[in-house]
Each structure stands twice: as C-alpha cells, then as structure tokens.
Amino acid sequence: MSKKLVLLGDSIFDNQIYVTGVGPSVTEWLVNKMEGTGCEVENHAIDGDIIDGVFNQIASIPEDATHLALSVGGNDGLHYLGELMNRRCLLCNLIPAIINFGSFIRSKYSRLLDALQEDGRPLMLCTIYHPHFDHPLMSIIARIGINIAAGVILSEGKRRGLPVIDLRKVFTQVRDYANPIEPGVPGGDKLSENLIHVLNSHDFAAGRHRVYHSTDYSVPELSDWKVNESRYFPENCWSERANGWQRPMKRIQTAQKKLKGGKKKGLRDKAENDPFRGANQAQALRQRNREGSF
Predict the structure, then answer these.
(1) Measured between alpha carbons, how far is 30 from 37 in angstroms, rounded to an integer?
(2) Which tens digit of pLDDT belongs to each residue from 85-112?
(3) What's the pLDDT tens digit per position in 45-97?
(4) Stretch 269-285: mean pLDDT, rounded?
(5) What is the arithmetic mean of pLDDT over 277-292?
(6) Tens digit of each residue's pLDDT (9 = 90 or more) over 235-256
(7) Where is this region: Disordered (predicted)?
(8) Nearest CA to 246 among 266, 229, 221?
C-alpha cells in the first residue's frame, strides 16, 4: 500500500538551509530513501515555528496524506528560556519557573494533538533533543527544560497510544548537529531512519505507545564525519569529499542533484526556506497568544 508521510513542526524537519552545500536535509534523506518504495514525503514544517504555528500547517495537509509526523516545541522552549534570561531570574526563582514550563508546554501541545487527531490519520511524535550551548548556565537550564518537554511529549504519546521517537537518545554525537541547535547531515540520516522505521513497522491500528531511538546511520562512513568543534560544521563541504566518500554516498547525492533541475515534490525551494519566514510567523503568533507571566 502506498503511503504519504507529511512532516509538521519546525527546523528539526525543515533544516535544509543549515545543510545546503554540505549534504542532504532531513527531507532529502527521506525522499531519496523512499524512492521506488511506493512511499512519498512532503515537508510542511517551517523553520522557526512554534506549537501555535503548527495549526496553520494543519490547513495545508494534503487530502492524500496517510501518515503525519510532528516535531515541535524547541522554539517555544527557546523563547521561554530567553524570557528567563532577559528577566535575570534569581536562581531561587529559576527552578520553579523551569518547572512551570512543563504546564506551559503541555497545555499547548495537548491542544495541538487534539487537532491533529481529529481526522484519524496515523500520527508519530518526536521529542526535542538536547542542544549544545557554550554558555554553562544556558546549557544546564536547557537540559532541564528539554527533559521536562520530552516528558510531556512522552506522556501525551503514552496517553494517546502513539509512537514517539526520542531524539535525546538519537542525537548522541556532536557530528549529528549542523550547529548547537539544528540537525546536521549525519543527524538527519539518523532521524530519517527512525521515521521510515516507524512508518513501515509500527502497528498504528493497535493504538499502542512505543518509544523508538535508533542511533544507526544508513551509511557507516557517517560515523567518521569530521567536525570543526568550534562551529559544529564539517571541515569539508559535501562537494569536496574524497572519492572514498562519494562512492558509498552516491545514492544520497542523487537527491541533491535532482533539486538543480527544478523543485522536486516534497522539498522546499530557496524562497520557502527563508530563515526568517518561520521566525516572523512565530513572533506574530506570540504577540497574539501571550500567556501569563513566566
């Protein structure tokens, strides 16, 4: 049976701008791996979007979509963290504020899942992964906040009988990141492997909750991906890889080449990957939907 997977959320799925000229984005990995299998993928996720913004993405879901994948919440967390840092919260007030983040996320996330499940399409969820901030305090706060948010997503997945990909256990290496908060080429490969596995193997009809977190790369050479530690970018661009890299990765490069002749279905073009598009939308939504004090 043919399947069409629609990606919803933020830059965890819509990461093309962060890997252009370096390697495949998450969607490009999926398009390439699904080619010839009877499965399709369309990316409706928007870089910079927040939970409230996904309601707009729902309106664009095509009628022939058979499965949905959701990954969102990281930008809500960054905004919340930014508010705390801007207010220079005292340490004694910081922990209660971080704990309050759980209820802040749950109310929004639960309402979004209600909307996504209205039409009965199979749905898979992704948690947020741990960022790699240089600032020690931000790193500690972010790790606590991410674990709280992941707990919300996991508990909602369990309550609703949905599969969840725990990205905290998938993105385990610095090379998995394009920068401290965005998926890189190896990370995108891991994520696409998990998405395809859940799409093809999970029994959605049974309504059973299960957590997935494979750390395998589809191409073993990705485990040797060289990283510039100061910037989290590969030392050499994709086009500069040695022949030993290019041969085993040839099937993946095909996805990149297809984009040069025009837009390929399921992938965003340059205009659609405007890095400020999602951020502007998120800012407008935050102004309209501000909720209480942190």
Answers:
(1) 11
(2) 666 665 556 677 777 888 889 999 999 9
(3) 999 999 999 999 999 999 999 999 999 998 888 787 777 766 666 555 667 77
(4) 45
(5) 46
(6) 433 333 333 333 334 433 444 4
(7) 248-294
(8) 221
**Domain boundary assignment for the chain:** 3-288
Q: Do 238 and 256 meet the contact criterion of CB atoms below 8 Å apart?
A: yes
Tell me the pLDDT of the chain averaged across its residues: 80
Q: How far apart are CA 289 and CA 155, in angstroms?
A: 25
Q: Are strands 67-71 and 3-9 parallel, antiparallel or unpaired?
A: parallel
Query: CATH homologous superfamily of domain 3-288?
Result: SGNH hydrolase (3.40.50.1110)
Distances (CA, A) of 112 to 61, 71, 106: 14, 12, 10
Taken in order 98, 102, 107, 109, the sign of the CA dihedral is positive
Amino acid 189 reads D
pTM over 0.90: no
User: With contact defined as beta carbons under 8 Å apart, do 6 and 238 qualify?
Assistant: no
